[in-house]
Amino acid sequence: MSCGNPHETDCSEVLDHLYEYLDSEMSEGDRHKLEEHFGECHPCLEKYGLEQAVKKLVKRCCGHDDVPGDLRSKVLTRIELIRSGEIGPVTEAPVESPSSAKAVEPDQGRPQTTS
């Protein structure tokens, strides 16, 4: 994503560190660089707003569950491995929902044939 304008901090760098910014897990200098970028790049500002809204929604809906202590570090490690290209994202076969499965009705009331 890019607005097509040159920036001191590249859009891809900003988006790579967006969650660190949202979670206040970066230095003040780096936070300032991203804030400056958001001020001049509308697409990145929109992405920031969207991710911030999703984060708030997840917190509101799922914020009451206890999370195992090591889960956060496992997830962050996985994200870094995917970003670095060492591994790809996990893709799973789609799960068929009950509503999309074809119903199979028993042969009720039909005469049975024998061969």
UniProtKB/TrEMBL annotation:
Residues of the Putative zinc-finger domain: 11-44
- Segments of this protein annotated with the region Disordered: 86-115
Domain of life, per UniProt, equals Bacteria
InterPro entries linked: Anit_sigma_mycothiol_RsrA, Znf_put
NCBIfam families per the record? antisig_RsrA (TIGR03988)
Q: What protein name does the entry list?
A: Mycothiol system anti-sigma-R factor
This protein's species is: Streptantibioticus rubrisoli
